[in-house]
Amino acid sequence: MYNVLEVNKTNYENCREQEFITNVSRGGGRDVFELKEAKAYYFLSGGGFCWSGMKLAISVHQPSPSPPPPPPPASSKAASLLSPTTSIIITTLLLAFSIVLVWLL
Fold it and tell me: What global pTM score does this model have?
């Protein structure tokens, strides 16, 4: 039977199971451990199995805060209604209409 032990970094590096922090073993392969805080966690298997590589180090970090949403683009109502192409077309039509009016008068 394997024991899953939480240990400090020194004991992890030296496969030393004495003075463990927590015995995570519950039996029957149902070993569960909550990683509740941001820090480095070190686990090893007792009974000398650590020397065969049965150990695990996990580094838990706080999630990065999500960036704020981008500000809405600053624009006036008229600018939001007309695209640059539409503005050019309307300006050209008004100019052509003015020329026709002057020609007719």
Answer: 0.59
